[in-house]
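Lecture 7, part B: from sequences to assemblies.

Below are the input chains for today's worked example.
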Amino acid sequence: MKVRKKGRIISWIKKRKKIIIAIFIIWAVIFIINLVIGNRKPIEIDMPKTTYEPNTPIISTKNTVPEKEQDNITDKIDEFINYCNNREYDKAYSYLTDDCKKVIFNDEIDNFKNYIDNLFDEKKIYYVQNLSNDKNLYIYRLRLLNDYLAKGVKTKSQIKYKEQEITLTQINDEYKISMVNFIKSNNLNKEYDDSYLNLNIKNVEIYYDCEIYNVTVKNKTDKTIVICDNLQSEEILLDIGTEKREVMDDSILIGEKNLNVVLKPNETKDFRFKFVKLFDEYANSSSMQFDKVRIFDKYTGKEENLEEELNNAIDKYAFEIKL
Amino acid sequence: MNFNKENILKIVCILVIFSNLFLIIQNYAVPYINNYKIIKQYQKEKKEKTLNQKSEDEIDYSDTEESSTTEQYVYDEYNDLLQKDELSRMKDYVGKYITYINEKDYASAYNLLYDEFKSNYFQTLEDFEKYAKNTYSNDMYIVFNDLKRYGVYYMYEVTIYDMDEIGQDEKKNVISTIFTIKENAILDYVLSFGV
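Predicted structure of the full complex, as structure tokens:
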């Protein structure tokens, strides 16, 4: 019985072979057409013409924001700003990178709260513009304005904004934010040691417009060691390949002025060496040079005594640390 | 009809062909249908907002012919704005506000304002009407000075003059202000100004 049934089915198929093939061909054609149409981009709803392209980099076009990531990034920024506006500090704080929490806010949410209260003194509207990008790192200029749409504004002089660079970094399929122009930090632990001193470059904080190196210097002698006192030029330099940049006097956040790297006998001190360096220069800092190290028995630090003290210096030398 | 296997096969085949053809046509036609629906929806909401603002005695039940003319007007306006750059569109949006004020159509002008702006300054239409009558002259014309874009926000510095003072050396009824406009889509915008 089974054999007969099987025979009937095969015979039925054989009789209608042409029809079945025709149906299959028609189905295949329609299937392919549907597949092609299904993979086409959907026709976009008419959008108004605008010059605003927040995800187009305006400083360096070396790398762009991938199209599939653009919405993720702008949504993240929007959520962060909304949390800040609504004073949802914990949620906003959780959007920051660990680096940013540590370096900018010293891992203290109270510091972050104070900063946000100051920045968002009233409800803000904002807009962003992509500046440059590097691998999974996207840098935007953020401008915060008072909510002029709700308040109304009469004159141009009333229009003010606050501006800073923020960076979105992809960490474990999620975007985290760095703010206050900070991008990231790198541990270095590059050391120089001689009979006079030990100098350790612990890490570097990379900002959009500068790099700050955290350095510890130990005076191993009973003399005064001067590495930088601003009485001479080019005392501490950063070699970025194409040129050498001089250390800056000021230091952000701490509020120091007139960087003086002067160590009394047997003293150990921490310093922050700041150098101008734009992130989108895409230049690597290769070494730090200390070109005017002086060892003194007697040191006043006064310009009028400079020549005499230099002549009487126990030693004068230079050294370099590769980064 | 004899529902044998052959006929059933034919019916299934025809259904498959027609359903696929329908899907193909729909795929091309849907965006155009959706756009038209958005326009109709906009026109309907605009009308509802205007009706809600008016008193019962003033309710105006437009006849169908007038509705279709309005729809056509909105459709034409939509397409016209679609072709314009942002400078021209912002001029049109601000110009529309001034036109409504000139026509004493305070309800329509009020509807253009951002909700939070209304909450801050004109909680009711009456408040706005009072402000408009005290501030604006009977017939105004506007001079557009400078447009600045701040992301999706536009700020247009304008000077509003009294038409009755054209040609006069001394103009008394001059208003200098900035219109702030946020455009979500064509014809979907809100604005505010310096009070």
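Note for the exam: Residues 17-39 of chain A form the longest helix (23 residues). Keep this in mind when comparing with the next example.
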